[in-house]
Amino acid sequence: MTFQNTREFAQQLDSEDSLQQYQNQFIFPKVNDKRVIYFTGNSLGLQPKRTKAYVDEIMNDWGNLAVEGHFYAEKPWWDYQERFAEPLSKIVGALPSEVTVMNTLTVNLHLLMVSFYQPTKTRYKIICEEKAFPSDQYMFQSQVHFHGYKPEDAIVEIKRREGEHNIRLEDVLAKIEEVGDELALVLIGGVNYYTGQVFDIKTITAAGQKAGAKVGWDLAHAAGNIKLELHDWNVDFAAWCSYKYMNSGPGNASGCFVHERHHNDSNLPRFAGWWGHNKERRFKMEPNFDPVHGAGGWQISNLPVLSLAPYLASVEMFAEVGMEALIAKRDKITAYLEFVLHEIDREVAGTFEIITPSNPAERASQLSVFLHGEGRSLFDYLMKNGVITDWREPNVIRLAPVPLYCSFEDMYDFGQILKKGILKE
What we know:
This is Kynureninase. By secondary structure, this protein is of the alpha/beta class. The protein contains 13 helices and 17 strands.
């Protein structure tokens, strides 16, 4: 398609958009009494309007039923988390038994590393990407310390080549082969939070396992954003947060995936808790742990249903839309945003540099843009004029045109505001 940087063309694209109706199902902040252009769904998604009813339902059941709500609420709290299995399995490409929700993201990654990072004297190294999200870096450091290793010996970072912003697949594969028999675990972010690069999960997983390692993925920026086939790709384990592209609210519950081939492995260590015990015998208060079959066996504590309610509202919306339709719009609106940026760059004689890969197969709903020659004042101008975006030092803005609630006209309007902000300086 040949794009045009005009309001009329953007409106035409919106009129052809099968997801346009969903924009009205979200609550937008306002700046100067006008709905904002929201580009930070890669940090915190907007609130769906339907969310309040899901939370109110639990509050009403708590008030009317108290403890009996565990069994007699409209959605009994006792098995509330089981409602996620079917819709989440479709979002991440898993069997329903392979997914569950519990805790928060880094907590779950730590718990999964209990099972899947089992270092020995000769096989103890972890491969991750350079500039992983800091929480992952801290997690790796504390995990290897816990096992008696030094981070500088046990953690192997795959680095970008000099002058390049993204990591090459061949460099990931070469590093896996180089570490070889010393490799215990590969754990990478499915989408790099800074650049927006999408990694080849299938190929990297196969390479890591061929080397004798377990392979897990931090899918914080991937779940609800890219096509995932975790079961078919043979991924050992994964975890993701729900508050970015899946709009479940700040700091909310995390999703987990454990491949079915690990479900019956009694030699696999795990930290156990009451809620992961055999559901039918849980209230018998037995002394020995008998895990629930599937990913649910990694649960530890009673699930916080007030937190799960917004997440359930969201995954049911995803079930209505389907990942195929989301990805189709994602690719189109991201391409249009890229076009608008290049047009504005040309009009203002600027030096924008999009550091996110241009290949659609290597990116999703994010463009990270170096604003060469521009300072923090441009970001401040955007924010004051109703564009909610994200600033990363030294001068990068991250733009996430989330397909559920961003419009093509938003992309056009953003370009005009950006142009005024640059010319103003």
